[in-house]
Amino acid sequence: MVKLTAAVCVSACLLLALNACTQDRGANIANAADTTEPVQTLRIAAAANLSDVLPNIIDSYQADNSSSVQNISGISDIEVTYASSGKLYAQIKAGAPYDIFLSANQTFPAKLANEPLTDGTDENNKLTKPFTYTRGQLALYSVTKPLNDFTPTSLGYVFTSADFTQDSKVAIANPDLAPYGASAKAYLQSQDMYDKLNAQKSLIQSENIGQAFQYAHTGSVDYGFVAQSQLVAIRAKPEQFITLLPASYPAILQDGIIINNTAPAADFTNYLRSEVGQRHFLQAGYLAIQ
Fold first, then answer.
1. Considering only CA atoms, which of 125, 158, 128 is closest in space to residue 140?
2. What single-letter DSSP state applies at residue 158?
3. pLDDT for the residue numbered 126
4. Which of 113-127, 153-167, 222-236 has the lowest mean pLDDT?
5. What is the DSSP annotation of 141-182?
6. Which among 240, 248, 71 is positioned nearest to 153, based on CA atoms?
7. Longest dimension (CA), the chain
């Protein structure tokens, strides 16, 4: 009877010790979880022309981070809103919760850097300095009118050729909101064609470069001034487009700015400007930045 009681006591002690170890182990796991770097969603406001290249860059960035031993980004997801640069600028000024703004020009990031936001932010708390991340190219695109007979130097003759009638339509992004539209307008002005096309109501103004591309791609208009990157994305046929000479229109330098100055935002923007990021832009139809 004494032996049985002793055995029960020993068993009880072992169970108590095991339970204590289990509780300690659970507490250690909980503490480790508490010290893990919290993940977060990175929110990007991106110009419409980036819709064909930015997804690939994001996939590459996340793949590189997931395989990296020194992954300090802490990003669980990246959400992108595409719109005209002017529209995104207005949203940010109104307090939209973006972390990064990738514009299609340099004007809007520069304005944000020098203006206080309207969300109660201290006027002295300026945003980080804008940075250039790529340079866009402009092209004329048509799925209804072959462009074989024209070259970049003779492109202006498209709008005086026999194929161009009073009923012909040309899509152009809103020059006041979309930098690609502003460059297209400047090109037409250099050819003394903008006022003429406007007067005969040939110009169809779209909200952004994405919409201008859709108008041309669906044949809703005869021609469209679009981003070269959009044509690369769809593998357009050579006879469907002409890439404008870079010197024939104002350089489309695209700047970005960090709105919410965090480590993940800085890490992603550094990736955009890295050799890997720039390779994605070059392959997508953009020009190299210095």
1. 158
2. G
3. 59
4. 113-127
5. E-SSS--TT--GGGGGGGGGSTT--TT--EEEE-TTT-HHHH
6. 248
7. 115
Radius of gyration of the chain (CA): 28
pTM score of the predicted model: 0.73
Instruction: Taking the CA atoms of 272, 278, 279 and 281 in sequence, report the sign of the dihedral they define.
Output: positive
Q: Give the whole-angstrom CA distance, residue 115 versus residue 230.
A: 32
Query: 121 by DSSP, 3-state: which?
Result: coil
The closest alpha carbon to 257, from 60, 119, 106, 76, belongs to 106
Q: How far is CA 166 from CA 149, 221, 223, in A?
A: 21, 13, 13
In single-letter form, the type of residue at position 36 comes to T
Q: Which amino acid is at 64?
A: D
Tokens 């055995």 correspond to 7
Ranges of H-type helices in the chain: 2-35, 54-66, 85-93, 107-114, 179-190, 194-199, 209-217, 228-234, 263-273, 275-283
What is the Cα–Cα distance from 244 to 153, expressed in whole angstroms?
8
User: Cβ(133)–Cβ(254) under 8 Å?
Assistant: yes
- Tokens representing 27? 């507490």
- How far, in Å, CA of 19 to CA of 75, rounded? 37
Q: What average pLDDT does this structure show over 164-180?
A: 92
DSSP 8-state class, residue 1: -
**Sign of the CA dihedral with 47 first, then 48, 51, and 53 last:** negative
d(CA 42, CA 133): 18
